[in-house]
Amino acid sequence: MSTTASAATEAAASDRAGASRRQGTFYRGDPGMWSWVLHRITGVLTFFFLFVHVLDTALVRVSPDTYNEVIETYKTPIVNLLEVGLVGAVLFHALNGIRVMLVDFWEKGPKFQKPMLWTILAIWVVVMIPGAFFMMKRTVEVMFGGH
Amino acid sequence: MSELALERPRAPKRAAARRSNFELYSWLFMRISGLALIVLVLGHLFIMNILDGGVHRINWGFVAGRWASPFWQFWDLSMLWLAEIHGGNGLRTIIDDYARKDSTRFWLKIVLYVSMVLILAVGTMVIFTFDPGISAN
């Protein structure tokens, strides 16, 4: 009884202590919590995009002209920028998904959850820089009167 | 008591006899489908957005050319089903986490399941009944 009470007091004290809380078993405020938040947000965004994307692709059954008209909007600068955002969201979700699986199935996964998070963020940056460049290249050229 | 303590954290909400392994299978499905989707979706995004001029080369003729091949039909069909169920299951979890009232939870899930059936039906129908001949009209 007294053990439980003192453990609870200790937990509450370390909760108030701020920085020391991070060294304990608390998940709240850990980068792992933010990756979980980001995983949910990117997942929901992708789900809603998929809804729209299946319906716009379904226009191939209406007529070639209807489909072509709608797909042209994907080539406008703003939508093209949104596509870069989508690719960024999906790429984070995929990389973090691999990290989640390693935490679940690899015996050392939980121990390395934080370095694995920094690793996937580094991979994300390294892939997204050329990715965004090649996705936007033609759009930017067209914007400034190129071919 | 501390605010951190959970009241009866392991108390089952339903009688043990009625519990199923559904959540275990859904957890496992998320990981297996996720693994397949890494290849299917990242491949799709790379081909559509980056390869050979990216999105600027896509039009009706491009889609018709792709779906002339059973390989891409199979790719897109598996991607559609796995992504829709993976995403739908993720959204189901989110609704369970955040809906406060049982009625809200119920109706949000009805909307979710209807949208999933709609997308799977429309998407599957389009891939299977696509007719490259309509360009002639």
TrEMBL record, chain A:
Location(s), subcellular: Membrane
Record's keyword terms, sorted: Heme, Iron, Membrane, Metal-binding, Transmembrane, Transmembrane helix
Annotated Gene Ontology cellular component terms: membrane
Lineage: Bacteria, Bacillati, Actinomycetota, Actinomycetes, Pseudonocardiales
One GO term (biological process): tricarboxylic acid cycle
Organism: Amycolatopsis umgeniensis
Family: Belongs to the cytochrome b560 family.
The keyword Transport is assigned to this record: no
Annotated protein name in UniProt: Succinate dehydrogenase / fumarate reductase cytochrome b subunit
TrEMBL record, chain B:
CDD domains in alphabetical order: SQR_TypeA_SdhD_like
Keywords carried by this UniProt record: Heme, Iron, Membrane, Metal-binding, Transmembrane, Transmembrane helix
Keyword hit for DNA repair: no
Top-level taxon of origin: Bacteria
Gene3D superfamilies membership: Fumarate reductase/succinate dehydrogenase, transmembrane subunit (1.20.1300.10)
Subcellular location: Membrane
InterPro entries membership: SQR/QFR_C/D, SuccDH_FuR_B_TM-su
SUPFAM superfamilies hit by this protein: Fumarate reductase respiratory complex transmembrane subunits
Kinase recorded as keyword: no
GO MF annotations, alphabetized: metal ion binding
Transmembrane residue ranges: 28-51, 110-130
Record-level GO cellular component terms: membrane
Protein name according to UniProt: Succinate dehydrogenase / fumarate reductase membrane anchor subunit
Organism: Amycolatopsis umgeniensis
